[in-house]
Amino acid sequence: MILIFIQRLFGVLILGRKMKLGLFSTSFLSLVLQTGMCFGIRWLALSKTPSALALNQTQHCKQLEGLVSSQMQLCRSNLELMQTIIQAAREVKKTCHKTFSDMRWNCSSIELAPNFQQDLERGTRESAFVYALSAAGISHTIARACTTGDLPGCSCGPIPGETPEPGYRWGGCADNLNYGLLMGSKFSDAPMKVKKSGSQANKLMHLHNSEVGRQILKASLEMKCKCHGVSGSCSIRTCWRGLQELRDIALDLKIRYLTATKVVHRPMGTRKQLVPKDIDIRPVQETELVYLQSSPDYCMKNEKLGSPGTQDRQCNKTSNGSDSCDLMCCGRGYNPYMDKVVERCHCKYHWCCYVTCKKCERTVERYVCK
Ligand SMILES: *[C@@H]1O[C@H](CO)[C@@H](O)[C@H](O)[C@H]1NC(C)=O
Ligand SMILES: *[C@@H]1O[C@H](CO)[C@@H](O)[C@H](O)[C@H]1NC(C)=O
Ligand SMILES: *[C@@H]1O[C@H](CO)[C@@H](O)[C@H](O)[C@H]1NC(C)=O
Ligand SMILES: *[C@@H]1O[C@H](CO)[C@@H](O)[C@H](O)[C@H]1NC(C)=O
């Protein structure tokens, strides 16, 4: 028997009214030099940090995996932020898996942090997405941690300057986006600001895509409101500015991943910049993801290219999207198997106020790629 208590009808009402804020400030593509590896998202290895690890002394920073030396310094000078950054790495990993679960490339390579394979090291579309999501994710998590009071260095975001419409008033606790952007970019961009690491083209690409992630995060700030008044009459609403969930931001970035622009590193004016490869001269836009290397089709296993292949991946026989058996299995065909699902059933409402259900089992046919 499962009891589900019906939430009181009177309560929080989230109004999805987007607010117009001064968005899309100029993107920056700073100049950094040299060759070698770029360790831009190695910090995602923090997702594997044991949750019991104490982080209250500067020497604990050495126990964290995947940090470059400038991030190690930030750890020592901002110890109180580190639990939040570890949480951000976990959120980014989880969200990436979820967002790409219906695609041939399913973000499995993120598990390899801090030693990535070619899909995330070479400057492909997939790395463009992961950099953008990582930059958005770290700032998102810090901004939220300010709101919940988990960080000593920040609190609620500022109350907006404009007066709200009649029936609305500012209140609650806004997500502290400015603090999130400031500390998040300081930490996650640090590896791309190191001279002597990575090719310049790769670093410009990673910095650009990280900035796209932050722009989309900024654009996700919306008005959230809570109703007050007799029995939820909502005669007065208290409102604040809150960020959308990271999974929604990831869905937006996924669309940009699908329409990403291939760029080349070429002299423009006095310095070399990233410019679109196939279109005649137009600058790269601030909200488009860019990549330098084409991706494989991710059909077959190829470790050199960072492709795990789609053998044994589940596919959907009735879908005609990217998770359809045709597309997912690359025409190789698929094998059916039977799976049991447990569902709530025979639910009954009891006055007042709960529901009881039974558990029912049902077999369904599923398919995996050959
Ligand atoms: C650090 O945290 C651990 C466990 O959270 C605690 O046992 C220890 O006393 C703390 N040390 C200091 C110096 O605060
Ligand atoms: C992603 O694909 C790989 C390779 O087919 C598979 O081993 C893994 O379980 C998948 N991961 C998720 C989260 O679906
Ligand atoms: C398969 O795709 C169809 C159509 O898009 C969808 O309604 C259904 O829920 C999917 N099934 C599974 C098991 O994901
Ligand atoms: C399949 O694709 C067609 C167009 O190609 C579209 O109209 C239809 O909604 C799709 N069906 C599903 C279940 O996604």
From TrEMBL:
Database matches in Gene3D superfamilies: 3.30.2460.20
Record organism: Microcaecilia unicolor
Keywords of this entry: Developmental protein, Disulfide bond, Extracellular matrix, Glycoprotein, Lipoprotein, Membrane, Secreted, Signal, Transmembrane, Transmembrane helix, Wnt signaling pathway
Function: Ligand for members of the frizzled family of seven transmembrane receptors.
CDD domains: Wnt_Wnt11
Family classification: Belongs to the Wnt family.
Segments crossing the lipid bilayer: 21-45
Chief location bin: secreted
GO biological process, one term: canonical Wnt signaling pathway
GO CC annotations on file: extracellular space
Compartments, record wording: Secreted, Extracellular space, Extracellular matrix
Coiled-coil positions: none
PANTHER family assigned to the protein according to its UniProt record, in alphabetical order: PROTEIN WNT-11, WNT RELATED
PROSITE patterns, per the entry: WNT1 (PS00246)
Lineage, top ranks: Eukaryota, Metazoa, Chordata, Craniata, Vertebrata
Superkingdom of origin: Eukaryota
InterPro entries from the UniProt entry: Wnt, Wnt_C, Wnt_CS
GO MF annotations in UniProt: cytokine activity; frizzled binding
Protein name: Protein Wnt
Record keyword Lipoprotein present: yes
